[in-house]
Amino acid sequence: MFDPASWPDGDLTAAAREVARLGLERAVYELEVFGLTVVTADRTGMADVCARAFGRACDLIEQRTGTRPDVVGGATHVGVVTPSLHHFLHEDESFQDLVSHDMALALATMLVGARSVIAGTELFMKGPANGEAGLLVTKNGSGLQLGLHSDNVTIPEPFPMLAHACNVTWLLSDYTKDAGALAFVPGSHRLCRQPQGREGVERAVAIEAPAGSLVVWHGNTWHGSYPRTTPGLRTGMATAFHREYMHPHEPVGRDMPADVVRRRGARFATLMGHDVLDWETEGPDYAKLLARPFRFTPYT
Question: Is residue 67 exposed (0-12), middle (13-18) or buried (19+ Cβ within 10 Å)?
């Protein structure tokens, strides 16, 4: 059996050691074979932080829209499948704790590398389905409410097998099929394209896990969600981790307070895009450019 602890130092070795330290070998296997993995709340230890993040998200939605989410019945989010909140990572430390959690970073590193950046964060909050058509999907709550798709919306087909993006989602509520859980098609990341029509729906499976769980998937992976058939709100915080050469969706690094970046250290600064090398008008900073390791590996 391989023992990364005895290997020479390097990016791949460091990533493997971190995976072993956190006991995530099974999760890495699932990402490779199925294109998605779940680390349950009992292992992440983040149920309390997710509860605080949920409360803070409700506060922000009320501040921005004037309406507080109906947590009990979900009446404020009936039939909703698109995000209810964007660009909020800088608003509270609970959100920052989630994106910088060591298990989240270890799995994101295995997919998009140690120099990946956060491109944007979205809060998905949905109440009961209303029987009408969802997005990219069939009518009357049959099958999926949010149709199958890959997150590679700006990447032309065929997609590369090497992930250029990954989704790191924290469950801020319990996910069950009846509650409107995520759905995904195991192995679909290997097809390297978007689904066509209703392709893959019959092979989709539900992601059922308690609040505080972590779900991570490859940018190629086909996923959607089921309609919620019970009162309340199904809520998840999704963060897009991209390779550093991809354009971010939101001004994540611009609006993150400098004192937060200093306090959270070098990896957090990288996530904020603070060490992305831009050419500007005079060419690159060659000293910084040449100081970087250039290894043909997805982990750099």
Answer: exposed
